[in-house]
Amino acid sequence: MLRIGLSGGIGAGKSTVSATFGELGGIVVDGDVIAREVVEPGTEGLAKLVDAFGKDILQDDGTLNRPALAAIAFSDEEKRKTLNGIVHPLVGRRREELIAAAAADAVIVEDIPLLVESGMAPMFPLVVIVHAEEDLRVQRLIEYRGFSEEDARARIATQATEEQRRAVADVWLDNAGSPEELVEKARELWHERILPFAHNVHDGRPARPEPVLVPYDSTWPDQARRAVARLNTACRHRAKRIDHIGSTAVPGMDAKDVIDIQVTVGSLEVADELRDALTGAGYVHRQHTADVGKSDARSTVAEFDRTNGEHMWHKRLHCSADPGRPTNVHLRVEGRPNQQFALLFVDWLRANPSAHSDYLALKRRVAQQGHESTDSYAEAKEPWFLDNYRRAWEWADETDWAP
Ligand code: ADP
Questions:
Q1: Is 12 within any annotated ligand binding site?
Q2: CATH code, domain with 306
């Protein structure tokens, strides 16, 4: 199962996208629709509202009189809390029921108008935002949805800004053109990214990135920030820290277009406990694996300093199943030489232009040799690492580096 968060400012065109995903087989869970369902006549929700606010909130036919309820509930902070206390848990429960009933390989599309405002974006393996400029949205809201200009602008002003939406968007769907163009973009996204992502998660298969070196992409840090936020939500207290590591974290460095993230844990048992949570976040388990050990192992933690032994280099690896954003998630134990070196390496390259250019030259040389697999590419870089492991730690000692 893959859960997708779909949002956008009012009038952006979100309904078109969720309808398209629904036609293509997605199970659309629409917050607004559910909020109406849970207070229909005969529901527990409506009975509770009548208990709390009296029969005056009903129309003659027994359905909820929304303006009457709004007039009462929005007059007073306590009453608003009472209303939310009744409706929100019922909406949450219904949402969970719909999700639980879905098939294992289903794509759940959660249509959430206030996804950004409510801070829910990191709960989803993929966040899709529909966007249109404010004036265009206002025009459409007036023309098709009966808003006055004043109301439309007031609603927009209470919502998240474009910048806040961009910060959480894995996919940005621009709806400046015709509705047909938006449908076409949504269909393409579904077939090229969402469905393969869902199948990969279901089968426990990672996305296969192109094993080619590309020039530094200045959006990598933002993409990494979204992965870190998602991983924080998935791992919670079991992660001691989560860092963007590897070449994509070093400004100006060529790299394969794969974001590396390190999740620092207290033990590999904890890493194993995280397996389901990481899979749910779109990162499938790869292997019990180890980094290549160095004979002069170092750590700033006394317990691990100069502690050799193969198990010092063990880790767990999860990889993103999203074909649109290949990501490796390395779970390493706090204080062990491999966990420390991942952090040191990035700081050292960022701070030392000569190390930066040496490493860049090595990467380009190795890439030219045309290694078929990622493993042989990594192996070809290893002799350089054996030398430069010591060089990085010398810099760490000179500068009192701390992770
Ligand atoms: P949202 O669900 O994001 O609040 P809607 O999907 O309801 O916004 O879009 C607002 C209105 O604009 C709707 O009536 C919709 O039919 C219309 N609309 C959406 N996309 C376009 C478009 N590309 N061109 C013209 N009208 C559009």
A1: yes
A2: 3.30.460.10
- Residue bearing the CA closest to ligand 1, atom 13: 144
318 close to ligand 1 (CB < 6 Angstrom): no
- Candidate from 109, 144, 165 with most ligand 1 atoms within 8 A of CB, to mutate: 144
Query: In sequence order, which residues have a C-beta less than 8 Å from that of residue 125 and are 6 or more positions away?
Result: 2, 3, 4, 197, 201, 230, 280, 281, 282, 322
- For 141-196, what is each residue's pLDDT tens digit? 999 999 999 999 999 999 999 999 999 999 999 999 999 999 999 999 999 999 99
Q: What is the pLDDT of residues 337-360, one digit of tens each?
A: 999 999 999 999 999 999 999 999
Rounded to a whole number, what is the largest CA-CA distance in the chain? 82
Owning domain of residue 151: 2-203
Query: What span, in angstroms and rounded, lies between the C-alpha atoms of 35 and 108?
Result: 18
Residue 208 lies in a domain: no
Q: pTM for the whole thing? A: 0.91
- Among 153, 169, 203, the domain-final residue is 203
Q: Write out the two tokens for 134.
A: 């404010």
